[in-house]
C-alpha cells in the first residue's frame, strides 16, 4: 500500500501548476476611451445564478487600474487557434502597445459596458465589478456577468489551460456522466 513516504513533496510556490483553474481568458477594459486587453489564467466561477466570476488581476497590469477606475470589463474566451496570440498579449502592456491593433483583434460594441467584445473569441461575457473587498488583499475581483455572447458558428470550440510554466493543455475528449448527476439534476 502507498504511504506518504512514497510521495514526492511539491513546492508550495508551484501549487498553481497542479490546479491552475479554468480556461485561459482575455480580459478587455476601456480606460479613458482607449480599449485594452490582457491575458488571465487565474480565474474561477464563484456562483451559478446570478453568476459571479473571480479574476485575479495584479496592480502590475494596466488593466488593474482600468478595472478599478471603470468597474467594467469583458471576459473573452479564445479558442486554441488563438493560443500563441493570447500568450503574446500577456507579455506586453497596454501602457506601451495598442494591443487590438498589434494583434489584429476586432473590437465589437458591448451592450452594457464600455469595454469591447473580441470578434475572434468564441464567447464574450460583459461584466461589472460586483465586489472589490478582496482586491487589496488578493488582487481578486469579483465580477458579475451582465450580458454574454457566443459565436453560433463555433459549437465545439477548444479552450486551452495554462499549466503555469508556459505550457498549455488543450481541451480533449468530452465524456458524458449525466447519469451520475443524480443530486444535481437542475444543472443538466
Ligand atoms: C498565460 C498567461 C496567464 C496570465 N495570467 C494572469 C493572471 O491571471 N493575472 C494577472 O494579473 N496577470 C496575468 N498574466 C499577465 C498579464 O496578462 C500581463 O501582465 C499583461 O501584459 C497585462 O497587460 P496590461 O498591462 O495591458 O493590463 C498572464 C500572462 C500570461 C502569458
Would you write up a description of this structure?
- The chain is an alpha+beta fold and 188 residues long.
- It has a single domain, classed as Pnp Oxidase, Chain A (Roll), CATH 2.30.110.10.
- It has helices spanning 16-19, 62-70, 83-89, 99-102, 135-138; strands at 25-31, 34-40, 43-47, 52-56, 72-77, 107-108, 117-118, 123-131, 140-150, 160-162, 168-170.
- It has a seven-stranded antiparallel sheet. Strands 6-7 form a two-stranded antiparallel ribbon. A two-stranded antiparallel sheet has the order 10-11.
- Strand 1 and strand 2 (34-40) form a beta hairpin.
- It is globular.
- It binds flavin mononucleotide.
Short note summarizing the structure:
The protein has 188 residues and is α+β, with helices and mostly antiparallel strands.
What composes the largest sheet? 7 strands, antiparallel
The 3D shape can be described as globular
CATH A-level architecture? Roll
Kindly report the oligomeric state of this protein. Answer: single chain
Radius of gyration: 18 Å
Number of DSSP strand runs: 11
Instruction: Please count the helical segments.
Output: 5
Output the strand order for the largest sheet. Answer: 2-1-5-8-9-4-3
| CATH H-level homologous superfamily name | Electron Transport, Fmn-binding Protein, Chain A
Mean pLDDT: 95
Weakly predicted, low-confidence segments: none
Estimated helix fraction: 10-25%
Q: What is the CATH T-level topology?
A: Pnp Oxidase, Chain A
* CA-CA gap between termini: 38 Å
What are the secondary-structure elements, in order, as H or E? HEEEEHEHHEEEHEEE
CATH class: Mainly Beta
How many domains make up the 3D coordinates? Answer: 1
